[in-house]
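If you are new to this repository, start here. Below is one unmodified record pulled from the training split, so you can see the exact layout before writing a loader.
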Amino acid sequence: MKIILAIDGSEHSKMTVEEIAGRTFPPKTEVRIVTAYTKPSKIVFSEDGMMSEDYYPEINRIALKSATSITKDATKILHKSNLTLVITSAVIDGSPAQAILREAEAFDADLIVVGSHGHGAVAGFLLGSVSQAVALHAKCSVEIVRNEKTKQ
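And here is the target side for that same chain:
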């Protein structure tokens, strides 16, 4: 079995990692932990503005470091819970839904697991939903893990 575990560092994705860590899988199940990373836009403010182009590399470095840390933490949790899992991780470039779908196809995933942010129907419609987009467009099964407190 091949699983994409898509996380973003939020409380919902941490709960999703714990959910997968608490399950039993067949030996040699492959889990690929992914975090989507969108490079910050290059915004240059005027001299009397707030930020110059010089700050862009530092902002980019911090964002990439954070995304890498998220995948490393999840990898540690899964390794502790199940030594038979084959775990890899990646920070993937692009908007989250599209990046997750691309990675799942390249990995030939049987299952994509994502967390739900619990926005509800109206907010999800207005704000968009990564989990909804992944569920609608994936070529494999998708599991959306919900937080008990936000179930609707």
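Two things worth knowing about this chain: Strands lie at 2-6, 30-37, 86-93, 111-115, 141-145. Residues 56-81 form the longest helix (26 residues).
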